[in-house]
Amino acid sequence: MSFSFVVTVTAVAAFILGVGWLFFAPVLIRRWGMQVHSETVVVGRRLGTAYLGIAIILLLARTAPLSQLRLAISAGLLFAMVVLAMLGVKEYQAKRVNASILISVALEVFLTIGYAQVLVDDLKTLSVL
Q1: What is the rounded (10 degree) CA torsion for 39, 40, 45, 47?
Q2: Residue 61 backbone zone (phi > 0: left; psi -120 to 50: alpha; other: beta)
Q3: The total number of structural domains that make up the chain
Q4: Range of the domain at 13
Q5: H/E/C letters for each residue in 76-119?
Q6: Phi and psi for 101 in degrees, rounded to 5?
Q7: Where are the bilayer-spanning segments (predicted)?
Q8: What is this structure's pTM?
């Protein structure tokens, strides 16, 4: 997978999540089988704003040449995707969310593979590996 492809997929997902959390937080909370509380809606809306900011950053960076910034984006998102996938599985196993979380986990695993491949390829190009 190319950097441009993985970043674009992530940006689209972040945009969809951002709009969803910002404007439809109760729907997303219920989708995971959780109770809607005003506190979770507030956190969800704030998270939505962060997702939209990430989507903008990634869309603007999608054509970035190999650089320290591109490595930082790949490494940071690789870390985030690994942890998000692990947390999703853990919350599902603990029965704090329902099986719909596994859709998110599947996307996170796909993006983990993509960012790992991009990072390894970029580091090989730089002769670091």
Answers
A1: 120
A2: alpha
A3: 1
A4: 3-125
A5: HHHHHHHHHHHHHHHHHHCCCCCCCHHHHHHHHHHHHHHHHHHH
A6: -65, -25
A7: 6-29, 49-65, 71-89, 101-120
A8: 0.87
